[in-house]
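Worked problem 6 (solution included).
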Amino acid sequence: MIPKPMENKDHEEQETALNLDENSVEGATPPTDEVAEENTLSQEEKLTLEVVELKEKYLRLYSDFENFRKRTAKERIDLIKTASEEVLKDLIPVVDDFERAFKAAEKETDPQKIQEGNQLIFQKLVKILDSRGLKPMEELIGQPFNPDTQEAITQIPSPSPELKGAVIDVVEKGYFLGEKVVRFAKVVTGA
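Solution. The predicted structure is:
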């Protein structure tokens, strides 16, 4: 038996149903050029907005850095200007003591008492400087010359062979502030 041909109407419905099933499986209709162009524009717009946002962030960061740099430079200048304030406050009483000593020396006839008063003021000054970290260099006479802490101002013939290249005399004391040399000792060395 030969199958009966289906009616055209039923056949068309089946084909339409089949086409709908294929489209739903594959997805929606493929994007046209207009839809792709809209996606591209929106992608370009997204990138443009991102660039603008990054530029604003960069400008804010740069501005913050410039403000920080200016503020720290100003603070550093202020610190340098006022760094010696504490030391100067400590030295004012020493100046007062010297003024009193000068007045007392005008009336005093005993040189021993004047010398004792000057010695007390000197010790007070040394104590203040010591409390601030200023230390004199140790005894240098007889020690080998050290160019890192000493400055040789002249050479003389050494009185003994063991003093050759060593410090024979100290013209000016050297000082350390902590571990740093703030004044080199001026010395005479043996040749």
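Discussion: Residues 133-191 form a domain with the Nucleotide Exchange Factor Grpe; Chain A, domain 2 fold (CATH 2.30.22.10).
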